[in-house]
Amino acid sequence: MSQLSSLEELGSAANVPSAQPEAPVHVQKLDKFGRAYATGKRKDAVARVWVKPGSGKIIVNDKDYTAYFARPVLQMVLRQPIVATSRDGQFDIIATVAGGGLSGQAGAVRHGISKALTYYEPGLRAVLKKGGFLTRDSRTVERKKYGKAKARRSFQFSKR
Known about the structure:
Layout: H1 7-15, E1 36-42, E2 45-53, E3 58-60, E4 63-64, H2 65-68, H3 72-84, E5 91-98, H4 102-120, H5 125-131
Helix pairs in contact: 3-4
Family: Belongs to the universal ribosomal protein uS9 family.
Keywords: Ribonucleoprotein, Ribosomal protein
Organism: Jiella avicenniae
């Protein structure tokens, strides 16, 4: 960095365009089988998701997603990123999910699908980011504290 000795030099130095950092260019990330892989997380659940072109089958832990997630709300949560990007019936999705309950697992698979779709088709990133699908929901169960019945609940108080 050169030394500036007067205000005029400072003004002329400010007019020089500095090297602005470029926005990161997102490129397609595929494995040797032509699949995009991503990890999704929600609460205590972790999902490993593979996305490849296909007929629209969604397999979760070697079962059809409608059999694994019986509640329609969870099926809807799982399909949100696919519907938002209007890629219904274009990709086969295989997911393995472990930990947590069914709601957390559905959220983890949704997060994984969203990330894998951006790796397969980087142009979809703007739509998924605007919908909030790429953000990991960091809310987890608060730990239990000593001297408390639960995380925050105190034992019953009695004056005598």
